[in-house]
Amino acid sequence: MLHVDKVTLRFGGLVALDEVSFTVSPGSLHALIGPNGAGKSSCFNVISGLYRPTSGLVRLGDEDLTRVRPHRLARLGVGRAFQNTALSSHSTVLDNVLLGRHVLTRGGFLACGLGLTRREERRHCARAKEICDFLGIGDTVDQSVGALPYGVVKKVDIARALAVEPSLLLLDEPAAGLNPEETAALAATIGQIRADLGIAVLLVEHDMELVMGIADRVTVLDFGRVIADGTPAEVQNDPGVIKAYLGVTT
Ligand SMILES: Nc1ncnc2c1ncn2[C@@H]1O[C@H](COP(=O)(O)OP(=O)(O)OP(=O)(O)O)[C@@H](O)[C@H]1O
């Protein structure tokens, strides 16, 4: 269970997040949406440890994430995929996904290159390939990331995040930059992650349509505040949400 509890984040005089609270239940697909500048990325960055909130707490089970350094999050079972993917474009898909697994190896990254036994190496490779197969990119494992279409690159980044065997997957605007066809494919993949892997997904997304078909629960931010929290049907019909998105009252 992820608890975001009264999180406030200020940048000088600007209040990016104002007492934001919501809960992501285990195994659920939770979307955090809102118009431009609503505070979604700020919230993602607080949850993933990149920003320390001015006040408030983020807890994963008993662990206070606001005190955990970003690189330690993976060991606590949090996988992250970023808006601008952090992949090495010259390396193969498999190598990028394997890099995501380094936190699971005994000595961390160096051990991955230097000290892993053959058997361990084979095990990690097999698992990385399995994850790629699951995401439908199994036929790309030997290709350079730089040569792949953007929709596939996004999936490689998700594969890298899944490689830490997370119980919570954080996705920051995964559909940004994708065409409608790629967006639909990605939505199906995210739905599949939640259905087949049983892990919780927090999806930060600008595109309301994308999340409505797949999310169990939706939290809506506007000007740094939670303006609605409920099922997709509930928030979709909320006059405050319609106003925030369309700028009109109904
Ligand atoms: N590092 C920063 N320094 C100063 N202000 C910031 C910083 N990051 C975000 N902000 C401000 O905080 C507010 C929330 O921005 P944020 O990027 O979190 O919104 P968002 O909902 O992710 O928007 P978008 O959909 O456009 O990405 C905005 O007013 C933004 O200008």
Automatic annotation (TrEMBL):
Record carries keyword Acyltransferase: no
Gene3D superfamilies recorded: P-loop containing nucleotide triphosphate hydrolases (3.40.50.300)
Protein name per Swiss-Prot or TrEMBL: ABC transporter ATP-binding protein
Record's keyword terms, sorted: ATP-binding, Nucleotide-binding, Transport
Transmembrane feature ranges: none
Matching SMART domains: AAA
GO molecular-function terms, A-Z: ATP binding
Domain ABC transporter: 2-248
Matching PROSITE patterns: ABC_TRANSPORTER_2 (PS50893)
Alphabetical list of SUPFAM superfamilies matching this protein: P-loop containing nucleoside triphosphate hydrolases (SSF52540)
PANTHER family given in the database record: ABC TRANSPORTER ATP-BINDING PROTEIN, CONSERVED COMPONENT OF ABC TRANSPORTER FOR NATURAL AMINO ACIDS-RELATED
Pfam families the record matches: ABC_tran, BCA_ABC_TP_C
